[in-house]
Each structure stands twice: as C-alpha cells, then as structure tokens.
Design brief:
Number of strands: 19
Number of helices: 21
Structural class: alpha+beta
Strand content: 5-15%
Helix content: 40-55%
Length: 580
C-alpha cells in the first residue's frame, strides 16, 4: 500500500522511543519471514474424573501424552480448587459425583477483579458452600447487597474500573440459571449497573484527556491580557472561573487531580494569574507588625490572624542566630522576596533578644571580653549548650570569686549538680529556645521536646541530646528528663536530711520533688554521682552518699588580734560555720 511505484525502492527499519536499533540479523530474518519455531503448545486434559476431589485434581494434573505439548500450570480454576477443596467444611459437604461437579463449576468462576489468589478463592469458596447445601442456590439477599454496593458512579478512574470488574463477576453468576432462583431479574439488574459504570468510566476518560478546564487555561495563557483570578477566604484559587488549587500563605498547591498536560497548564496559569496577589502578600509581610507574626512548634512562621505558614526555620542555624527561608513565592521578584525575608529575620532576632535576653547578654559579655579570663571558657560552653551544663568536669571549684560573681551577674547559677540560667526556664523563653534548638539540628526528626508548663519532669519518646533538653530547662536521664531547679531542690533536701552525717536516707517523699516515681530516684542519684552505702541485709531505707570533693579546702586563716587566744579556747565543733 502507498504511493505508486513505492515497491521499487528499498525501505528502512526505524525505532520509536528508546528502543535500540535493529541488528542486521533481525532485519534479514524479518525480510525472509524466518521466525523461531514454536517448541510446545499449552495443553490441558479434557478427560476429567469427578469421583472425588482428589480424583479431579489428579485428572487435571495428567501430563500430555504427545510430544510438543506442555501442561497448563497455575490456571485460576485449578488453583482455586486446591485451596477450596482442602477446607474441612467443603470436604464434609462433598458426598457424590454431582457435588464434585458443582464444586468444579464454582471454581471456574472467572477472576474479573484480578484479585489475589487467596481473595478469589474466598469468594469461590463461599459460592461453593451455597451450591453444596440443601437448597443448591445462592441466596438472593447476598447477591442483591453486593450488586447494590457497586451501583455508584463517584470516584476516580481506578475506583470505577474496580467496580466494573466486580459487577461483571455478578453478571457471570446471574447468567447461571442453576445458581440463582431469580436469575433473569439479576441479569437485568447487573446489566443496568454495568452500563451505568461503563458510561461513567467513559465520561471520566473523556474528562481526563479532553478537559474543558485545560482548554480554557491553555487559551488564556496565549492571551496578552491578564488572566482573571480569584482567591477565596479559605484559599481556593480560581482562574477564568475554573478551580485550579489552593494558595496557602505564599505557597500555591495545584489541584492534585490535574495530571500531565493539564497539571502543567493549571500550574502555569495559576502562577501567572497569582503573581500580583503573591506580590501583595510579600509587601504585607514586609510591613507586618510584631504581634502579627508567630513561630509554631513545627518551626514555621505564621501570619496572623489567618495562621497560614509563610516561612520556616532553616536547618543548621544556631540557637541565638536562627535562619529563615520563605515557603513558596518562588516566582516572585528577588527584591520582594528579600524584603519579606529580612522582615521575618529581624522579627525573629528581636524575639530571641527579648525572650533569651540572659543568654544573649552572656554571649555579648564573652564576645566583648567583659568577663574575667577564668569565666570565659565556661560562658562559651554555656552558650553552645543552650545555657546549661553538667557541673561535673567543668572545673567550677577552681573558679576565683570574681569569676563567680561575674557569671552570677549575667544570670548564671552554679548549682550542686548543674550550671544553668534560671531565667531561661520561664515558659515563653523555654518554648522559643526549644523550638530554635530542635530545628537548628542538622537533621531534625521526631517530635519537638517541650513539656507542659510547670512540669517537674517529662518522659522522653526517644534518647535526646543534652542541648535539646537543656533548651527546654531539663536535664536528660535516659527515658525521662528532670527540670534543673527541681534537681537542685533534691540536692538541698538530701543535705538537710543527712545533717552533719555523711549519709542521707533515701525517703520515698524525695521522689515527689522531681515529679518521678520512687523507683526512678536511684537512677537519678546514680547519674548525679551519688553512691548507695546501704549494707546487704541492712533494714530501713537506703542511704546515699555524695563523695567528698577531691580538692582540699584552703586552710582557715588563724585569728589575729586580742581575740586570738579566745578563739583557741572555743571547741572546734562550735566554731565551725560561725560568722565572723
């Protein structure tokens, strides 16, 4: 076929898509009609035995007698027979040759649904049980319910195709006059449902490939004038009267039902039409007041009162110098984006300076050299660890009085077990610090650690770093964390309990100071450096000892003047701790 005389010119073989070019051998075999011979033909025995289920299976598995034939394997009806025929309830009902034939008829139900083998076998097994009972019929109530559930035209293409496949199964059942009492009625009913679903599927396919919205948007993109766009109060975006998606803050989310060409048309038309609206919102953000902005627990900055997210905290920032990135507005002009981002960055820096003022002041004192040399290292570590440190190993005992005084003036409290800044434990400060510390991690994952306001302790869903817990005002102990000030109250209670003795009894009420069960108290004390000194078999509560400091105390200065002789006469025990 083709133009006259075309047969006089040799043709050529071509490829489509990413298909590799034909090799010369393949071309020669095609031209010479030289194809590989068929080695075998699929075959299945037609001589079936219905004396029993085992006999039927054996006859189905009969190998072919002639060469060039290969037995069919994995047929749906044969596999269904193996599963259903092994059920005890089916075996009990099969008592005659006719029962085996009825079972085989049920197993031959086509798998229109393309379901799994087990799911198809369950349907076959239920039909077989009805066909093998005394009435030998499938109940009309069951079939009616199944067909009624499929008489729906809503949903996407996949849902319509699945319903159409299922109703064809019941059409097959209805065409078996010996399976249903009202077979003619159900044939009419299933045909109506099948036609309705076929029409809905055709309409969906037409809507998918020849869409009026796509045509309208493509025509609008070719025009020179601006597209007519609108944004409702809840963020729905319409272009030229067609719904195209949602505008959430500065981020446009296109209609997920628009795919391929339609999706590109929707997105391009929306971005072009929404450019003025996004520019207006960027200007509003650049002029926003402080009380109109809010940082959420998810690390996103929202614009009040609508609460739409407009920016997020970037990974890798620091607690005192967080970084902000806009969400959306990718197609806006760079000056507009920069102005909005700088406004949010300035607002967040102001919030840090206000809520985390003690930590900001400590960093400034360290950076400007206003701290004694002995205190600068400790101040730097406090800033790097969200304003709190474990006292052990920090060399606090060697700090001279002027270094301690300078740190105390900056709001640093050197406790018995922790070095922290009590002002950072205020609810607003702890909330801001916890959010910034979590989202400043290189790879933030899991929920934010931020216990309820005033909680003395909190359970941990996973192991947390020191900085994560310290930012919220807590010290981690494995699967839970305790507030710094409560730990210091516990240490004070232990000192009062032991008096002049070195050992403190572990009373159950001490656990209430840290808001933990009594069973958690030994773990906390062990982590803080206490040692249990209760002897085996000793009755009474456990006693705990905090080892004495290894560094000896400086010798007391000998009294001078006329009171020197009197001081020597006073007992050492009464002289201990007396104010001079």
């Amino acid at each position: 076929a083709g133009r006259a005389g075309r047969f006089k010119t040799d043709g050529a073989f071509g490829e489509t898509g990413e298909c590799a070019p034909f090799d010369e051998e393949t071309i020669e075999r095609v031209e010479a009609h030289d194809f590989e011979a068929v080695e075998a033909i699929h075959w299945r025995s037609a001589s079936l035995r219905f004396e029993s289920i085992a006999a039927l299976l054996a006859s189905l598995e009969t190998p072919p007698a002639a060469p060039g034939l290969t037995r069919v394997r994995g047929a749906d009806d044969e596999e269904a027979l193996k599963i259903v025929g092994a059920e005890a309830e089916v075996i009990d009902r099969v008592r005659s040759r006719r029962d085996v034939e009825r079972l085989w008829e049920a197993c031959q139900l086509p798998d229109f649904r393309k379901a799994s083998l087990d799911e198809h076998a369950r349907l076959v097994g239920r039909i077989a049980l009805y066909l093998l009972d005394a009435k030998r019929r499938i109940p009309r109530e069951w079939v009616s319910r199944e067909v009624e559930s499929l008489d729906r035209t809503e949903g996407d293409l996949d849902a319509l195709q699945q319903r159409l496949a299922q109703v064809r199964t019941w059409t097959y059942v209805a065409n078996r006059a010996d399976w249903l009492d009202d077979a003619e009625e159900f044939r009419t009913r299933t045909r109506e449902v099948e036609d309705k679903l076929s029409d809905a599927l055709h309409a969906a396919l037409t809507q998918r490939f020849i869409d009026r919205r796509t045509s309208a948007l493509l025509k609008g993109l070719k025009r020179e004038d601006a597209l007519l766009a609108g944004v409702s109060h809840d963020g729905e975006v319409t272009v030229e009267g067609h719904y195209v998606g949602r505008l959430d803050g500065l981020d446009f989310k296109p209609d997920p039902r628009a795919l391929d060409l339609e999706g590109r048309a929707v997105r391009n038309a929306a971005l072009r039409a929404l450019r003025p609206e996004i520019s207006r919102r960027l200007r509003d953000i650049a002029d926003a007041k402080d009380n109109e902005l809010e940082l959420g627990r998810d690390g996103r900055i929202r614009r009040l009162p609508d609460g739409a997210p407009i920016a997020r905290l970037e990974k890798g920032g620091s607690l005192l110098r967080p970084r902000v990135a806009l969400i959306g507005a990718d197609t806006a002009a760079p000056p507009e984006r920069d102005a909005a981002r700088e406004r949010l960055q300035f607002w967040l820096a102001g919030a840090v300076a206000q809520e985390l003022a003690p930590l900001v002041a400590l960093e400034a004192a360290w950076r400007e050299g206003r701290l004694p040399a002995a205190a600068r290292g400790l101040a730097f570590r406090l800033v790097e660890n969200a304003g709190a440190l474990d006292r052990a190993g920090q060399g606090v005992d060697e700090l001279p009085p002027e270094a301690r005084a300078a740190l105390a003036q900056c709001g640093v409290r050197i406790g018995r077990h922790s070095i922290y800044m009590p002002a950072l434990g205020r609810p607003q400060a702890a909330r801001l610090a916890a959010i910034l510390q979590h989202w400043a991690l290189p790879d933030p994952h899991g929920a934010l650690f931020l216990p309820r306001v005033g909680a003395p302790s909190a359970n941990l869903d996973r192991p947390r770093s020191w900085a994560e817990c310290a930012a919220a005002g807590y010290r981690p102990f494995g699967r839970f964390a305790v507030r710094f000030d409560r730990l210091e109250r516990l240490a004070s209670a232990l000192r009062r309990a032991k008096g002049d003795a070195r050992d403190a009894p572990l009373e159950p009420h001490l656990a209430k100071l840290i808001g933990r069960p009594a069973r958690d108290l030994p773990k906390v004390l062990t982590a803080l450096g206490y040692q249990c000194v209760k002897e085996p078999g000793e009755a009474g509560p456990s006693r705990w000892r905090l080892p004495a400091e290894t560094k000896p105390r400086p010798p007391r200065r000998a009294p001078e003047g006329p009171f020197a002789a009197l001081a020597e006469l006073l007992p050492a025990q009464k002289r201990k701790g007396r104010k001079r």
